[in-house]
Amino acid sequence: MKKTLLLFFVLVSTTIMAQTNSGWGIKGGLNYNSNGKYFDDAGKIIDNPDGNVGYHFGFFGKGNLTGSLFIKPELVYTKIKSDYDGDKFDMSKLDMPVLLGYKILGPLEVFAGPAFQYILDTEFDGITMEDVENDFTIGMNIGVGISLGNIGIDLRYDRGFSDNQARYVNNNILDGFEQRVDTRPEQLVLGVSLRL
């Protein structure tokens, strides 16, 4: 499945590069992971502004399908940080969103599409967690962006669909018991891109 997905990504990217008014570029930005509690977590930003803030960087392709319709596959390394009752959870993953977008008016555009995610590493409060149920998960991205020539800015919502938990044993209690951390991302992503 992973090889099929990678082959699909390469074929879509190659097709896009063959289109007129298409291209590829680099992108990066910040992510804010909320664990599903945006309004509760908003107050914590003042006390600990970098608590749930991660980052991403990578490549994208963008090709016009019609005058206003476009496709935009991406390959992005993402670092997510989360706070679970004072304990820190970090996750590194490769994201491969395949976005279908529509240019609304002038530089304004909206987009949505599936996001294929491959988890590279998880760490909970300094302990590397090897036991993640699924390394490969599926989610979705939906957002809005502005394209100003070769520079783009977008804000998107990223949500993982696949149930996926990381397990670890808490040895701080006499018997030790298994605890689980939900690794599905639910984040707001602010990105800046440069078409080359």
How would you characterize the overall build of this protein?
By secondary structure, the chain is mainly beta. The protein has a single domain, classed as Porin. Helix content is 13%, strand content 63%. The strands form 2 sheets. An 8-stranded antiparallel β-barrel has the order 1-2-3-4-5-8-9-12. Strands 7-10-11 form a 3-stranded antiparallel beta sheet, with no helix packed on it. Strand 4 (87-105) and strand 5 (108-124) form a beta hairpin. The protein starts with a helix and ends with a strand.
Keywords for this entry:
single chain, 196 residues, Porin, eight-stranded antiparallel beta barrel, three-stranded antiparallel sheet, 12 strands, Outer membrane protein beta-barrel domain-containing protein, signal
Describe the secondary structure blueprint for this structure.
Elements: H1 2-18, E1 23-33, H2 38-42, H3 44-47, E2 53-64, E3 69-84, E4 87-105, E5 108-124, E6 127-128, E7 131-132, E8 136-148, E9 151-160, E10 165-170, E11 177-182, E12 186-195
Antiparallel strand pairs: 1-2, 1-12, 2-3, 3-4, 4-5, 5-6, 5-8, 7-10, 8-9, 9-12, 10-11
Domain Outer membrane protein beta-barrel: 18-163
Organism: Zhouia amylolytica AD3
Signal peptide: 1-18
Describe what is shown at a glance.
With 196 residues, this protein is mainly beta.
